[in-house]
Amino acid sequence: MDKMQIEKNKSKFSKKFYIGIVLIISSLIIGKITQAVFFFYYTDVFLRKLSIVVYVLSWPPFLLGIAWAGMEYADKYNRFFTFKYYKNKIRSRKK
User: Fold this and answer.
1) Res 3 pLDDT > 60
2) Residue 11's pLDDT is what?
3) Per-residue pLDDT for 9 more than 80?
4) 74 class by beta-carbon count within 10 Å (0-12 exposed, 13-18 middle, 19+ buried)
5) Is 23 exposed, middle or buried (0-12, 13-18, 19+ CB in 10 A)?
6) CA atoms within 13 Å, Cβ hemisphere of 26
7) How does pLDDT run across 20-51, given as a tens digit for each residue?
8) Burial of 78 (0-12, 13-18, 19+ CB in 10 A)
9) pLDDT at residue 76 in the model
10) In 3-state terms, what secondary structure has residue 4?
11) What is the dihedral of CA 41, 45, 48, 51, to 10 degrees?
12) Is the separation of the CB atoms in 86 and 41 below 8 Å?
């Protein structure tokens, strides 16, 4: 039972990871909305410029989200892409 709880706790990510995911998704949504405003109101100069500014401002949270979520995800699952991991796994099953 304890081993199952340990495995369950190992699969959880930190709050920083989940905040990064939220930043990525919200940035993509904001970016798509500003693209739509840019194309639907193409004749309105103010809305066109405003949509460009908001679109550019949506990139830093996107990049921050990728950095936070991506690094943690890569660190957690990078071991599965090494030969040593599978070699040790096979050895542990033989015993």
Assistant:
1) no
2) 60
3) no
4) exposed
5) buried
6) 13
7) 999 999 999 999 999 999 999 989 999 999 99
8) exposed
9) 75
10) helix
11) -120
12) no
Type of residue found at 74: A
Task: Provide mean pLDDT across the span 58-82.
Answer: 83
Tell the residue number behind the tokens 């936070």, with chain if given: 68
* Entry pTM: 0.67
Residue that is written with structure tokens 């949509």 in the block: 51
| CB burial readout 49-70, b (16+ within 10 A) else e | eebeeebeebeebbeebeebbe
Residue 69 and residue 24: Cα distance in Å, rounded?
9
Selection from 28, 33, 38, 36 nearest residue 58 by Cα? 28
Residues 68, 20 contacting (CB under 8 angstroms): yes
Cβ atoms 27, 59 nearer than 8 A: yes
